[in-house]
Amino acid sequence: MYVFKLTFKSALHVDSKGSGEPVSAQEFIHSDTLSAAIALAWAELFEERSEEFFLNLPFQVSSGFPYVKDVLLFPLPCWDVWAKPKQEQSEKQEVKQRKKIKKIKWISKSLFEDLLNGNQLTSQEILDNAIEGIAFSQAEKEKLADLGEKFWVISERQRVKIDRLGLRQEGGLFFFGLQFFAPGCGLYFLADVAKDKLDKLKAAITFLGDTGLGADRNCGLGHFQLQNVTKLCLNLPSKNNSWTILSLFNPDPTEDDLKNLTQYSAYNILERSGWIVHSTLGRPPVMVFAEGSFFSAQPKGRILPLLDQNIREKNKLNLSHSAPRDFRAFALPSQVNTGE
User: Fold this and answer.
1) Cα 257–chain centre separation
2) How far lies 275's CA from each of 15, 19, 37, 306, 323, in Å?
3) pLDDT averaged over the chain?
4) Does residue 244 register a pLDDT over 70?
5) What 3-state DSSP class applies to 249?
6) pTM of the predicted protein model
């Protein structure tokens, strides 16, 4: 398992909700978007454009999460990760603490390892070291003191719609969401790939960095540099009773039934949609489990074809494949206190 760290040369716009609204931008990249972008870059470089290639990708990736210097950030898991306070709190103190806890979206690698190994977070200590919705250990916070408290920002810029003649359209003002990273910050993702395919994956990601990721690539957005590739060192439990996913997940009908998978579990569900590249045709919506969900059995997932040959011919789409989306589960073993 490898860690790919990306340093962005320009602002990034990824509408991970598939809303089509330009003002909508998200601070990380869902795995299906990232996998599709890498697959298209791979296909372009190595001329592997068949349906068979896109349905059996030689790599698997997690979602693209933020990092701050050497600290990798992970999404806050869906289960109850907070330990009960050692001292009794007044109702006012409890409400205030809950409001702070709700703001935590990301946790550092060391805290994530603690959770995977069955520990819980001490709320007050964690909240004291939190920065802008990110939970760090005290040692990590001290190392990052020189960066300030803004590791990335989502801003809006006003833009103007123009017609094909270059004239402004009536009522054509709109806002466009952009993500900017502070120096030393960016996005990373985890990847499983055979050793003999690693160089090809590096080449595809380098090529993707030159062509851009997300929207408005022809305007210079989303360009990045592959900073480095390292092996993932993660302290995983020796025995586990569950699996936590770091990607989107849509179950394959051939894998364990959902009753067994969700015997004890906690999850969020998202609807994934969007647009087919180089067309005005939307993708059919797909319901998926979100990052940070955990399950009582190991989830597998699938690469789901979305447009069959008849639809492509009817809409005159110049595609050699069915625009599949990768919903395989990038899962890590975890030890969760289920109360049993």
Assistant:
1) 25
2) 11, 10, 13, 11, 10
3) 83
4) yes
5) strand
6) 0.86
